[in-house]
Amino acid sequence: MSRALRGSKRDALRVAAELVVAPSSAAAARTTVGQLLELWREHSLASWAPSTASTQESRLCRIRTDSIAGVMVSRLRASDVGQWHVRLARLGVGESSIRNQHQALRAALGLAVRWGWVPSNVAAAARLRRRPLVPRSALTADEVRRVLTSVAELVVSGKVEPHAALALRLAAITGARRSELAEVGSWFTGKNVLPERTWETRSEVVAASQGREFAFIVNGSWTRWGYALRAVDGGTELTESWEFLPGGEAMFQERFGADAEAQIANRLEQARTGIPATLAAIKRDAEGP
């Protein structure tokens, strides 16, 4: 199948992705990693918030500067991805930045898998190097409640400012250390508990502006949680937000396959019902009995 097209190279790449009917190996053999990243960006752009689009474009620009961008998708191997990680580390790129770039590449390759261009996602097979984590115990539910109660009492007595009190509440709820809440780029471990299972995640602090905003991204590129503060008459307005990121979608596609859409819908529903409950609990703790 062929089609005449007037436009830029970018337009040609997008149309090519829509019209590919040749065997999967043919499409992958004529597309570089850099071109695939651009196709993934255009495919996902409509679903991204402006802040996400800006962040992802920054990551893609960094990937394009490396030789991995010129490798044909059909020839890319997990070892190539691993060597790319090594090159980034030698250039002094931080662990979190390497992880974020890796997640963008993994999401793009996940799209190639769904299109039938390649049989598997080699970025999923490549292992990221991680610094050893120091084990630490989590607060029990009763301990978290005691912390929140104590914070409310301190606010009422005037011994703690509201902004500091919010940081304490977030630390108790998320399990983050004080320094992790205060510094962009730091990571903390979160414990998630549902009736049917319990699991842990690693989250990176991406915003920490005192009195204005605190936000973190789960597992490098899965979901973004944010807390925005705004002064209003009689107090402070707290807005909690949740965004499902492209890396999370790619992970769900890989893990759940045909059931991915149902699983994503379930997570969306959990966020829709969980956010009002969390805000109501924080409001009760902040205002006291």
Structural features:
289 residues, DNA polymerase, domain 1, Alpha-D-Glucose-1,6-Bisphosphate, Chain A, domain 4, 2 domains, five-stranded antiparallel β-sheet
Strand content: 15-25%
- The CATH homologous superfamily of the largest domain is termed START domain
CATH topology of the largest domain, which one?
Alpha-D-Glucose-1,6-Bisphosphate, Chain A, domain 4
Reported CATH architecture of the largest domain: 2-Layer Sandwich
Q: What is the tally of beta strands?
A: 5
- Overall pLDDT level: 77
> Based on helices, strands and strand pairing, what is the structural class?
alpha+beta
Reading side by side through the largest sheet, how are the strands ordered? 1-2-3-4-5
User: How far apart are the termini?
Assistant: 71 Å
Number of helices: 12
- How is the biggest beta sheet arranged? 5 strands, antiparallel
- What low-confidence regions span 5 or more consecutive residues with pLDDT below 50? 19-23
String of helices and strands: HHHHHHHHHHEEEEEHH
The first-level CATH class of the largest domain is given as Alpha Beta
In total, how many domains does the architecture comprise? 2
Radius of gyration: 22 Å
Which shape, going by the Cα principal axes?
elongated
The assembly state of the depicted protein chains is: single chain
Helix content: 40-55%
